[in-house]
UniProtKB/TrEMBL annotation:
Extent of the signal sequence: 1-26
Protein name as it appears in the record: Vitrin
Region Disordered: start-end pairs: 152-181, 193-220
Source organism: Lynx canadensis
UniProt keyword Glycoprotein present: yes
Alphabetized InterPro entries for the sequence: ECM_Assembly_Org, LCCL, LCCL_sf, VWF_A, vWFA_dom_sf
Residues covered by the LCCL domain: 40-133
Localisation per UniProt entry: Secreted, Extracellular space, Extracellular matrix
Task performed by this protein: Promotes matrix assembly and cell adhesiveness. Plays a role in spinal cord formation by regulating the proliferation and differentiation of neural stem cells.
One Pfam assignment: LCCL
Domain of life: Eukaryota
UniProt keyword annotations, A-Z: Disulfide bond, Extracellular matrix, Glycoprotein, Neurogenesis, Repeat, Secreted, Signal
Biased composition (Low complexity): 205-216
VWFA domain sequence ranges: 271-456, 473-642
Amino acid sequence: MGIVVLTMKASVIEMFLVLLATGIHSNKDMTKKIKRPKLTVPQINCDVKAGKIINPEFVVKCPAGCQDPKYHVYGTDIYASYSSVCGAAIHSGVLDNSGGKILVRKVAGQSGYKGSYSNGVQSLSLPRWRESFIVSEGKSQKGVTYPSALTYSSSKSPAAKTDEATKAYQKPPVPGTTAQPVTLTQVTGATATGAAHASLPKPSPSAGSTSSSLRPQPVGLRSRELDLWATSTYTSGQNSPRADPGFVPKEELSTQALEPLSQGDPNCKIDLSFVIDGSSSIGKRRFRIQKQFLADVAQALDIGPAGPLMGIVQYGDNPSAQFNLRTHMNSRDLRTAIEKITQRGGLSNAGRAISFVTKNFFSKANGNRGSAPNVAVVIVDGWPTDKVEEASRFARESGINIFFITIEGATENEKQYVVEPNFSHKAVCRTNGFYSLNVQSWFSLHKTVQALVKRVCDTDRLACSKTCLNSADIGFVIDGSSSVGTGNFRTVLQFVANLSKEFEISDIDTRIGAVQYTYEQRLEFGFDDYNTKSDILNAIKRVGYWSGGTSTGAAINYALEQLFKKSKPNKRKLMILITDGRSYDDVRIPAMVAHHKGVITYAIGVAWAAQDELEVIATHPAKDHSFFVDEFDNLYKFVPKVIQNICTEFNSQPRN
């Protein structure tokens, strides 16, 4: 009996040791998995719609071939969540048809979505939708972790049909181990059958239908379009007059009556950034007053794609964009978004915020249209805690019209604490009072709404907007050779003065410099020497005639080194060369260097100038950048033509 007992004890001990070893082995496996997590980018199919994915922001990989028109896309830049994610990425230009990684961010629903043709994809129009999304390059932001598995609202992952390894499942538990995590979390929707990629049902042709749901007809796939921007509802009990395979199912549409979608006030077409104070000193109550002020301005402006667009940057210690110009395309959605803004806290570093706006906010990716003036309205509680002068100067030089609203400014006793005296005066576009608003109390801020709206919409007075007349460094290269003569040289100087008069001249607008050449070269004055129109005109009058040979090639090299090397990076560089004869040296290589460095060269020849040489010197196309005048006395006739060509070229180029 004793032997049996010993045998049983040995068996128990042996079983215990086996289980213990199994547990240790399993724990080691788990440790390895914890130490070496497999970070993957989820892959989706072309037909996956953003609305089927619950995650608010995620990075995914699209396959090749999503340019196919069967993958419907609704909207432009901002897309309805009923759109194909990958199709929208191609339409927006983030991807091509070969696929790749993208970053998707959900945003608020819009009152309407306008279809357009872009990058080989025809997107469709759609009325109101409950949710939208925007697409950008699939680069992870620093400090942001994106999900390695997506959460879907359907009963089956769209990816599961092509890759069984990504199906949601759970292994049966093993003694001593932990159950494996689910790869994809599924949230059961109202309909439990049918994969997310199934074809949409067509409306029933039955006349006896009692459905009262809205049935908008997406447009863009046929030459004769039904404009949904003008169509609000379909008659109850009737089907769409023109059924289309891309129509939106009735169960996914809002049953509220559609409001007419405003395209915005065309008399106030501006791209506007509000730079709001979120510092701790402002307090919660005054921050709410500031948000109400923004909402009132948004309502008064009548936001829309044909009128003003508005984004918001909040600053404390550091600035952060709340939303950009293309996030909300109407006043109602914008007001809703403003209400959700939370206060950042920290210091009141307005200078840092202005730099952020200049470098990051007014870009094409953020909705900047280029054809609309850029306006930044900076709101400051009291005074900034950093300096604004240099940041504001760069903003002005970049074509941004800065307005300052100072609320409850420093009293006499408080001025000793102000970091930069007269900060508002140093920051605004012009110091004529038009760009500054001083508000005595936060409780009076609402009274400035109409005054501010009137000013920002007065585009004729937005003096810092980039134009062909205020955004260049212009270097005149003047032939002073013996063949010109003293009298004709004075005529050339008058031509230079007449051209200069047409430009807006200051240290932040157009700047003028001049070089005279014969065999040698001489810098008459540089871009930094004079910053008013009267000073420039007087400097031109004082230029003395030199006399000598004609080395035009050397003169171009000299101008590049002594003038344009000191040109500001955000200025257009224009060289206007005036000569009366053929050069003694080669002009081809110096001209090529000038063109390569981005210097737009105009060549003006008089009397004995060689036209073939003028065409070599001039920027392509030569017919727009080279001119020939038979006599010096006729130079004045070409002033309007030169100015016209400069402005035509400026207006044809993408800006900002």
